[in-house]
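Quick one, C-alpha cells below:
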C-alpha cells in the first residue's frame, strides 16, 4: 500500500487546479526590517486574487515581490519561493527583466510616459525586439484595454491629454502590449472617480478571460466585485505583514474562518 503524504496531496491539488503562481513561505526584508513574514498563496490561472488588509501590512511589498520590482530597492531581499509556471523567480540566473515582461505591473496612480498615446503602447514591444506589425499590436492592446474607440483618431496626441481613467487604461494597454502571462495591479482605482473605477473593474472582468490578475485594494466592495479569491493580511507587533486567511471571496466575505478577518471586514479595525 502506497501512503500519500500531506505534501503530495497539496501538490496534487495544485496541479488539478492549474496553479500558475505559487507563493511559498515568502518573507520580504528591507535591511533588518521584515515587511512580510512567511506568506503562502496559490494562484489559479485565469482567476482574480485580491490582497486586502490594513495600511502597512505588506500588501504592496508582497505584490512587488511577484515580479521582482523590490530588486530596485538596494536593501530589499527575500526568503522563500515564488514559483511562476513552476519556475522559481528568485532562482540563481533568473532574469528580472524577462520576469517583468512576463509579469506585468499596473501602479496606483496612472503613470503614462511623456510620449504620444501610440508610443506609450509601443514602447515595451520596441525595446523587447518585437518583429511583428506594431500598428496591429498597438490597436489590439488598446482594444483589450477598452480604449481604442476613444483614442483611435488621436494616437499622436500626448498621453497627458487623456483623463485620469483613460490614462490608467492606457497604462494597462501598455502592460498588455508586451503580452504578459500575469498582471499585478496595485490599487489601480485609488486615484480615479467612481465612473472611471467602474470602467477599470469591468475591464478586469474582461481581461480575466486571457490573464491571471493579482490586485491590491483597500476597497472591500471592490474586492467583492472583481475577485474570485481574497487574501486577508494583517501585521504583528513588529509590523511584519502576515497572511491571516485565504479563500474564495464569497467565503471570506460571508463566512470567514478567522475572527480577525471577520473583524476587519465588518469594520471593527483597520
Amino acid at each position: 500500500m502506497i501512503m500519500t503524504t500531506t505534501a503530495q496531496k497539496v501538490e496534487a491539488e495544485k496541479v488539478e487546479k492549474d496553479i500558475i503562481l505559487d507563493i511559498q513561505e515568502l518573507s520580504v526584508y528591507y535591511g533588518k526590517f521584515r515587511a512580510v513574514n512567511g506568506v503562502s498563496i496559490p494562484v489559479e490561472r485565469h482567476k482574480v486574487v485580491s490582497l486586502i488588509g490594513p495600511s502597512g501590512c505588506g500588501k504592496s511589498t508582497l505584490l512587488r515581490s511577484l515580479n521582482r520590482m523590490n530588486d530596485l530597492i538596494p536593501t530589499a531581499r527575500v526568503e522563500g519561493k515564488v514559483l511562476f509556471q513552476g519556475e522559481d523567480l528568485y532562482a540563481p540566473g533568473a532574469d528580472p527583466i524577462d520576469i517583468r515582461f512576463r509579469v506585468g505591473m499596473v501602479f496606483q496612480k496612472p503613470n503614462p510616459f511623456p510620449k504620444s498615446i501610440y508610443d506609450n503602447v509601443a514602447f515595451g514591444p520596441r525595446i523587447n525586439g518585437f518583429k511583428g506589425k506594431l500598428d496591429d499590436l498597438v490597436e489590439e492592446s488598446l482594444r483589450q484595454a477598452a480604449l481604442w474607440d476613444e483614442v483611435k483618431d488621436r494616437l499622436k496626441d500626448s498621453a497627458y491629454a487623456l483623463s485620469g481613467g483613460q490614462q490608467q487604461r492606457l497604462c494597462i494597454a501598455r502592460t498588455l502590449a508586451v503580452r504578459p502571462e500575469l498582471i499585478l495591479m496595485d490599487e489601480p482605482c485609488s486615484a480615479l472617480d467612481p465612473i472611471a473605477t467602474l470602467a477599470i473593474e469591468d475591464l478586469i472582468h474582461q481581461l480575466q478571460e486571457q490573464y491571471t490578475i493579482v490586485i491590491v485594494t483597500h476597497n472591500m466592495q471592490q474586492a467583492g466585485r472583481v475577485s474570485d479569491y481574497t487574501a486577508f493580511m494583517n501585521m504583528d507587533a513588529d509590523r511584519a505583514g502576515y497572511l491571516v486567511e485565504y479563500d474564495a471571496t464569497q467565503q471570506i466575505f460571508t463566512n470567514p474562518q478567522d475572527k480577525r478577518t471577520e473583524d476587519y471586514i465588518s469594520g471593527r479595525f483597520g
